[in-house]
Amino acid sequence: MALKATIFKAALQIADMDRNYYHDHALTIARHPSETDERMMVRVLAFALHAHDALAFGNGLSAEDEPDLWQKDLTGAIRIWIDVGLPHEKRVRKACSRAAQVFIYSYGGRTAETWWDKVDARLGRASNLTVRNLPAAGSQALARLAARHMRLQCTIQDGQIWVADADHTVPLALAVVKGLPLPSRP
């Protein structure tokens, strides 16, 4: 018998001063049995960084043709494709051919750096690809905020990110490995 996904609920308040985006989102997150709290919370962070009414979670790890998050326009064209972790090079190339913009949020410290070193020569040429790395300390701190029912606030200002619950605040710094930095005010 196959294991079922665990459902998490998150009330996410976003104050993105860099994009002038202030909105509350009620998220339902299905965590695949093989997914860790760390990976799930990086998905939530990616949602906060790209928040939009049309941004949606994909069908998860078991859906090979879908990203972790994506935003489609009214015609069904993929505007933004977001993957979390260290996706296979072939998957990233396919995403770059299908979407206007592709974002990869890697995490895991040295493992993420090693992954990029291996694929840089082949993926580094993609003009619509952005790779951002979350240091291991940041992704692990985010994982400690995971709960079945979460109330989270995400504040983004001048490229700085803070994610908080009622008891803890996690400051985060994303390193741009390739492509676009986080928007910031001039």
Count every helix, treating DSSP H or I runs of 4 or more residues as helices.
4
**What class, by secondary structure content?**
alpha/beta
H-E string: EEHEEEHEHEHEEEE
**Largest sheet properties:** 6 strands, mixed
Strand proportion, as a percent range, falls in 35-45%
Could you give me the name of the CATH homologous superfamily?
Answer: Restriction endonuclease-like alpha-beta roll domain
Q: What's the count of strands?
A: 11
The CATH topology is given as: Restriction endonuclease-like alpha-beta roll fold
Total discrete domains: 1
State the strand order across the main sheet: 3-4-5-6-7-11
Distance between the termini: 55 Å
Helix proportion of residues, in percent?
Answer: 10-25%
Can I get a quick summary?
It contains 4 helices and 11 strands. By secondary structure, the protein is α/β, with parallel strands linked by helices. The strands form 2 sheets. A 6-stranded mixed sheet has the order 3-4-5-6-7-11, with helices on both faces.
Can you characterise this structure?
The structure is a single chain. The chain is an alpha/beta fold and 186 residues long. 25% of the residues lie in helices and 39% in strands. The chain contains 4 helices and 11 strands; from the N terminus they run ββαβββαβαβαββββ. The strands form 2 sheets. The chain has a 6-stranded mixed β-sheet with strand order 3-4-5-6-7-11, sandwiched between helices. A 5-stranded mixed β-sheet has the order 2-1-8-9-10. A hairpin with a 2-residue loop joins strand 8 (149-157) and strand 9 (160-164).
